[in-house]
Amino acid sequence: MDFALTDEQKGLVDSTRSLLTAKSSIAGTRNLIDGPDGFDAALWRHGVELGWPALAVAEADGGLGQQSIDLALVAVELGRSLASTPLIPTALVADALGQSDNEQKAKLLQAICEGSLVASWAVAEFGRPWGPTGIATVARPHAGGYVLDGAKVSVQDADSAQLLLVDALLDDAPARFLVSTDADGVRIARQQTLDVTRSYCDVTLGQVKVDAAALLAQGDSAHRSLARTMQLSTALTCAELVGIGQRLLDMTVGYVKEREQFGRPVGSFQAVKHKCAEMRIWVQASTAATYFAAMTLDSAHHDTERAAGIAKAYVSDAINRVAGHALQLHGGIGFTWEHDLHLYLRRARVNSVLSGDARYHRERLCASLQAELAGAG
């Protein structure tokens, strides 16, 4: 695949970076810590004006009709600036809606593109594996609609969202439902997590009644929709990690050029040069793996599940190694609350386990290769 950006994509990156430079600061991100707001609402409004939530929504549905790689390019920039926005969870719901034939599709996608609707994806459950096998929330037919019972964890920005995409079991098979966050029986509580700059929530669904129109997909269509959402989530999470890695590399190179020891910049020492070179290699490889995974989402000629799994297995570990080198090369100052380094490290650690950690994806890849070899044999 050709990883060179088009002129339009370069413009998207430049405009996004300019906006984040002007409107998103680490000081603003720090203000979210322990605050009531889960994300920077002012920054999100500017992002909506730039077209972030509309990027991958089809033009027929009121969007810009771009591709998943364009979303990934924006996610990279969000990672670089450590911005707190609901782009990724909202984009995941918009993509699932766009792939469906739900009767509410047009209205909801229009609201998402306009920025009047923030949505999030509720799939993970406490103590359960990532993916379809981890779904224990149950949906039952009831009075022309459905009743949902269960609990979800680590739902990003659920306390600021108006709509949840909830995955549940209907007749022992996965099904997808649109649930309003103000519906009776929905309880949302913010978690205390390592990433203090973003909101992750526990969502409890106690006898939540929804009408028939809330069913987004069931049966085979639900399997396909859920698989695509997982793949897109994985690619966008990797993209944020890439941006974090790029910023950590820039911070570290800048610091070792200025910090002096024995009358010389520490960056002139061979051991420090080697570590910076390793960081650059890991970031570049992570970028290539992530771009490939994002591009396969809109291609019928590649195995997207495998590409996304390879990316997450590699990027999760590589960017955390970058963070480890950055912390070591910054020395004692890197351990202080006042320095920004730990904020990037925290988000890198959390992102590395979201959408399945490296071990999960390696096991999946191994099982896939074993099945492939068995079939060939």
Description of the molecule:
The protein is of the alpha+beta class. It has 3 domains: about 5-115, Butyryl-Coa Dehydrogenase, subunit A, domain 1 (Orthogonal Bundle); about 120-215, Butyryl-CoA Dehydrogenase, subunit A, domain 2 (Beta Barrel), CATH 2.40.110; about 220-375, Butyryl-CoA Dehydrogenase, subunit A, domain 3 (Up-down Bundle), CATH 1.20.140. Helix content is about 50%, strand content about 15%. It contains 11 helices and 10 strands. It has helices spanning about 5-25, 25-30, 40-50, 70-80, 85-100, 105-115, 220-260, 270-295, 305-330, 340-355, 360-375, and strands spanning about 120, 140, 145-155, 165-170, 175-180, 185-190, 200-210, 215-220, 260, 265. The strands form 2 sheets. Strands 1, 2, 3, 4, 5, 6, 7 and 8 form an 8-stranded mixed beta sheet that branches. Strands 9-10 form a two-stranded antiparallel ribbon. Helix 5 packs antiparallel against helix 7, helix 7 (about 220-260) packs antiparallel against helix 10 and helix 8 (about 270-295) runs antiparallel to helix 9. It is globular and about 80 Å long. Its cofactor is FAD. This is Acyl-CoA dehydrogenase domain-containing protein.
Please describe the biggest sheet, giving its number of strands, its sense, and whether it closes into a barrel: 8 strands, mixed
3D shape: globular
Question: Number of helical runs?
Answer: 11
| Total number of distinct structural domains | 3
CATH superfamily of the largest domain: Butyryl-CoA Dehydrogenase, subunit A, domain 3
CATH class category of the largest domain: Mainly Alpha
| Oligomeric state as shown | single chain
Helix content: 40-55%
Distance between the termini: 30 Å
What CATH calls the topology of the largest domain is Butyryl-CoA Dehydrogenase, subunit A, domain 3
Structural class: alpha+beta
DSSP strand tally: 10
**Estimated share of beta-strand residues:** 15-25%
**What's the CATH architecture name of the largest domain?**
Up-down Bundle
What's the SSE pattern? HHHHHHEEEEEEEEHEEHHHH
Domain Acyl-CoA dehydrogenase/oxidase C-terminal: 229-367
Protein name: Acyl-CoA dehydrogenase domain-containing protein
EC number: 1.3.99.21
InterPro entries: Acyl-CoA_Oxase/DH_mid-dom_sf, AcylCo_DH-like_C, AcylCo_DH/oxidase_C, AcylCoA_DH/ox_N, AcylCoA_DH/ox_N_sf, AcylCoA_DH/oxidase_NM_dom_sf
